[in-house]
From TrEMBL:
UniProt-recorded Gene Ontology molecular function terms: ATP binding; glycerol kinase activity
Pfam family, one: FGGY_C
Name of the molecule in the record: Probable glycerol kinase
Kinase among keywords: yes
This protein's pathway: Polyol metabolism; glycerol degradation via glycerol kinase pathway; sn-glycerol 3-phosphate from glycerol: step 1/1
Family, similarity comment: Belongs to the FGGY kinase family.
GO CC annotations on file: mitochondrion
Boundaries of every Carbohydrate kinase FGGY N-terminal domain copy: 14-252
Gene Ontology terms describing biological process: glycerol catabolic process; glycerol-3-phosphate biosynthetic process; triglyceride metabolic process
Amino acid sequence: MAASSSRVMLGPLVAAIDQGTSSTRFLVFNAKTAELLSHHQVEINQSFPKEGWVEEDPKEILQSVYECMERTCEKLTQLNVDISNIKAIGVTNQRETTLVWDKETGEALYNAIVWLDLRTQSTVENNPNSLNTYFSAVKLRWLMDNVDEVAEAVLTHRAMFGTVDSWLIWCLTGGKSGGVHCTDVTNASRTMLFNIHTLDWDPELCKYFDIPMEILPKVRSSSEIYGLMKSGCLSGIPISGCLGDQSAALVGQMCFQEGQAKNTYGTGCFLLRNTGAKPVMSEHGLLTTVAYKLGRDKPACYALEGSVAIAGAVVRWLKDNLGIIQTSTELEKLAASVGTSYGCYFVPAFSGLYAPYWEPSARGIICGLTQFTNKSHLAFAALEAVCFQTREILDAMNQDSGIPLTQLQVDGGMTSNRLLMQLQADILCIPVVKPSMPETTALGAAMAAGAAEGVSVWSLRPEDLSEVTSEKFEPQINPEESEFRYARWKKAVQRAMNWETTEPISNGNGRDSFS
């Protein structure tokens, strides 16, 4: 009996839905200590209907959230933790991924088009303005132009657009029976329809893409009560935090001071640096984005972001497409068995190149192969690729800010790979610092939810934030070797550029087709 009564002394708990590109997680934290008490994770299937297309099933995404919630609540009950102590839920999500649904039936009208998707490349290439396939506006335009159900729902005023956060919050707060159609400033700032200065939808951008503003969600701060859970084990609990995944990681890493930065290694790789209350425009290929706005009456903070499309996704590719590993953890063993790529370089530009190049016509390339090269060297080259891409965005960030980072704070699933962390320190020539609790994205969403007005169980005052324990990886190779390898990588990147053209190519049957 003593055990259960001591459990009750935990005090308020806050939960987070972390809906990522490759999986969904639900996590529960102690609001006073930030300790992770329990969690559950479910993988998400991706479909690739055509080359360059990436989709996910909106129903599966929603179902995975309910499943993770139920399983986590079961685990907490087994630990004698009273789930009625959960006071709030935060949402964090893969950004830019685009959904349209019917507000009367509650059904999605097409699969979610994932941020990595390249189907809008021709739209982008034919546009005089510097667009990219990455953002939601071009995906939404594609849906309106190519999916009859979407076009009709827009005409009959039944369509709702949203990124993953909007879809989840709408469904969880009641769906067609009074669901709340909203998003937060961080997710809105990734659509290309949002004015990051006025913090609202931009009528001119909406007109440019010919998107009716009535289908857009209401923009809210990242920390306020949006609505209450309407079903499941946590019915009645407020959803009161919402941050795009990279903003959530910035908050979870406590990067509240101007100049603080973090790099997240997930499906892609995202380096964000807090630039304070003013948006800073990049001259080196980085994006200016809203970092967070932690309360209706609080100011917005901005960040510079370096985005890399393929990081953890390269591991999935080696596993699912090439079959050279069975599990993600095998990659580290394979790479460590040789300790070098032996002159092999791998540029995983599967979805073109993002920052600092913004080159959608680039494609993946492996070069420097010899008869000696084997799958272990390829595994090592894949890990190096993640590190070289991070080095490119870190260099751009240092040039933009004029103040070089002296160490890099890291988080995300891939940081459990110790070889990767050591390689990253070697290639950057600065220490890499990894927190002992790697779930910083979910933690950030939980902090925003727990700090919301009307919940107020999580203090964000600097003196109240718990000290994070971490591990540091120091560079172990000389800078000359690092520079040599980096220069070779840059050479490989140039080889990957301008690969996809709109020139006719023979498809082997005597007829020309277009690539």
